[in-house]
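pinging the channel bc i need a second pair of eyes. not urgent but kinda urgent?? the chain im working w is below, pasted from the shared doc
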Amino acid sequence: MPKLISLMRAPGVQRIKSDRRGTSHPMPTTSAAGNSTDIAAQPTRIPGVLLGLGLGGFVDGIVVHQLFQWHHLISATHDHPVTTVAGLEANTFADGLFHMGTWILVLAGTMSMLLAWRRGRLAPSWRSQIGLLLAGWGSFNLVEGLVNHQILGIHHVRDDLGGPLSWDLGFVSFALLLLVGGWALHRSALPPARP
């Protein structure tokens, strides 16, 4: 035990403390030259946002495309109507490519998280990570709602009802709520700025 205590007091060894909100903060340590330094970098935002983008895509693909069957990826195109077997096959294939893309985002988020931890970055607090996941999900929905629904017009939220605009606007509003609310939750978990 005395060896462990002396190791913890050794110059350049990272020490971490948690505040009352559960946020981890690196404690200043002393380098071999006697200078005060922060050994560990703050948590990175990239993994949380990538995971939110991918998981948000999974929610859309699994719930809206498969369970509710409100639309498919290209269901509003006249070349691939879901009322024919060929059209449904084309839409199912497009949905598969869509799911592959969301899977790649989740894989990239997981790998970047592990790489950051291996490089000594701190793990984010729960509040920060959930905020980033929600912000990533909102970002996904915002791009989906503006690009796929409005600009390209390849599908709408409720193609099964003829694609009413009110559902598309509600989807974009929900996306903005997720994005702004998630970012606010993430920011509330950050440590106060040092003077």
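so The first helix runs from residue 2 to 8. and The longest strand covers residues 15-18. — does that match what u expected or am i reading it wrong
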